[in-house]
Amino acid sequence: MLTKILLPHRFQKIGWLLFLPFSVLLFSNNYFDFNFGWLEFGIREGSFFEDSKENFTNEFALIGTFISLFLIAFSREKEEDEYIQKLRLDSLLVAFYVNTFILILGTLLFYGFGYLEFMGYNMFTIQLIFIGRFRWVLRKQKQSLLAY
């Protein structure tokens, strides 16, 4: 993986700062019907359909969560070397394997609206598994270096 296409390290910090509020907003919107009033817009105005208002809090939270996970996953480390590149590639491969397994399992277990909700959350699994595994192996490696 070429480090030239990675974002600067400062974007990783921004991603961590944005992840918590956007994920809490997404959870609150999905389970407690929390909405921001300023994200409500009228749609289908001027047509023969009935005018209605739509709130875009869910879309705002989804996009914010995606962007924050993207910034975390694809920003450079302070010291980016060949070993870090190998860890990134291995973590990405593991994330795809686990995501495929989760997708197959979810397809067998969920039906109807439950499957739609499962697929909604499954959109985040590749990024979350990648970040989790990459950080875990990186931390484990740093601990083993400090032990010597």
Provide a quick synopsis of the model.
It is built from five helices and two strands, in the order αββαααα.
Describe the protein's architecture and organization.
The structure is a single chain. The chain is mainly alpha-helical. It is built from five helices and two strands, in the order H-E-E-H-H-H-H. The chain has helices at 10-32, 57-73, 82-109, 112-122, 125-147, and strands at residues 40-43, 52-55. A two-stranded antiparallel ribbon has the order 1-2. A hairpin with an 8-residue loop joins strand 1 and strand 2 (52-55). Helix 2 (57-73) packs parallel to helix 5 and helix 3 packs antiparallel against helix 4. The protein is globular, with a radius of gyration of 19 Å. The model has no long low-confidence stretch (mean pLDDT 90).
Query: How far apart lie the N and C ends?
Result: 29 Å
| Residues in helices, as a percent range | 55-70%
The sequence of SSEs as H and E is HEEHHHH
According to DSSP, the number of beta strands is 2
As residue ranges, the low-confidence spans are: none
Number of helices: 5
CA radius of gyration: 19 Å
Q: Which outline best applies? A: globular
Largest sheet: 2 strands, antiparallel
What kind of assembly state do the chains in view correspond to?
single chain
The secondary structure category is mainly alpha
Average pLDDT figure: 90
Measured by DSSP, the beta-strand proportion falls in: 5-15%
